[in-house]
Amino acid sequence: MKFKILTFSMLFILLNQCQTDVPEKTLIPKQANEFIWIYKPAGDHFFGPDTKHLKEGQWYNDWVPNDHTFVKGDDGKWHIFGITHPRVDSDPIKEGIHEGEYASFHAVSSANSFKGTLKKHHYADLPKVLPPKERPGEVLANHAPYIIKKDGLYQMIYGHSPIRLAVSKDLFKWQPKGELFSDSDGTRDPNVLFHNDIYYVVYCSIKSVRLVKSKDLVHWTKPKVILTTRKFDPESPSLIYFNNSFYLFVCSWDGVWDGKDIQGAYQHKTYVYHSKDMMDFGVDDEKEITTLNSHAPEIFQDEDGKWYISSVEWPNRGVSIDKLNWEAQK
Q1: Is the dihedral of CA 156, 35, 313, 269 positive or negative?
Q2: What is the radius of gyration, based on Cα positions, of the chain?
Q3: Please, are residues 88 and 262 in contact by the beta-carbon 8 Å criterion?
């Protein structure tokens, strides 16, 4: 009898050990490919200063958004901030494709739930944020803002080189706080992950995505290359932690554009990489798990935990949203 009890006990332990040793399946993000065009920029006066093709104070009907971020405010509304500038009718188009990107657009929802904002042209424009006149001494560019909340203040981290910081109590009035960090190879398109009480900022540089970290948003580590992309120039990285793994979403620019249509400048191929180690996403397609259709995507969850992927200037002129689901790797 004792032998049988011992045998059954050992069998239970072995079975339990086998279950524990079963590797966790990698979850793959799958989009619905049913984009909803939630934001179309309204006409506005150019904030300045003058550029070759744009005049301060002049009205322009057609505006072009780019890298952006979503944040739910204390007012219960969802807000979008992102790169913006008037469309430049230069000849060739390439000459003015990024001309005048000196401030962020700010658009707000009228619904309190994100699901309620998923309607055509739902978001309404508010005054532009942090043009050069509001941040004297900085470089003109105001690119790719990302917003988190810390110590009761909204913290906007933006670029490009150097990466800078502005703070706000309400998402409407912003106070520049100066430079956070820089990289001799350049810093573009910052994105933030707060994980285990540490702030991780990923950004694009020469043929690579790099990472720095900080406990206080003041003191930063030296940059580390976490992904090398020899086949394209990386853009608009998003780093998330999900299912005990790290996922890095990176938009690509391969330099192929005939310059005839503005949307051709906003390529919509986004590569997704998976790793257990956020410091190592490999070289080229070493840790690539899928590709998605989106330009400058933001990957985020709503109040109910549902996942979404955004895209700008494709498939619509403005910001669009698609649902994102996760499926086990086969």
Answers
A1: positive
A2: 22
A3: no
Q: What is the pLDDT of residues 205-246, one digit of tens each?
A: 999 999 999 999 999 999 999 999 999 999 999 999 999 999
Using 50, 70 and 90 to split pLDDT, how confident is the model at 22? Answer: low
Domain at 324, CATH number: 2.115.10.20
Burial 233-257 (b: 16+ CB within 10 A, else e): bbbbbbbbeeeeebbbbbbbbeeeb
Contact status, residue 226 vs residue 213, Cβ threshold 8 Å: no
User: 41: which DSSP letter?
Assistant: P
Residue 11 lies in a domain: no
Pairing assessment for the beta strands 245-253 and 44-45 based on DSSP bridges: unpaired
CA nearest neighbour of 138 among 245, 49, 265: 49
Q: Chain-centre distance of CA 328, in angstroms?
A: 24
DSSP-based three-state secondary structure for 167: strand
Peptide bond into 297 cis (omega under 30): no
Instruction: Residue 163: give the domain boundaries.
Output: 32-328
| Residue at 19 is within a domain | no
Contact call for residues 105 and 73 (beta carbons, < 8 A): no
Neighbour tally for 39: CB within 10 Å: 26
pTM for this predicted structure? 0.92
Quick one: CA dihedral 36, 324, 257, 252, positive or negative?
A: positive
Q: Per the structure, how many domains does the chain have?
A: 1
233-242 β-sheet, strand order? 233-242, 245-253, 269-275, 288-293
In a domain, 21, yes or no: no
Picking from 252, 259, 268, 249, the residue whose alpha carbon sits closest to that of residue 312 is 268
List C-alpha distances in Å: 145 to 130, 152, 192, 279.
Answer: 11, 19, 10, 23
Nearest-5° Cα angle at 28, 26 to 29: 145
- Domain assignment of residue 128, yes or no: yes
Side chain identity, residue 38: I
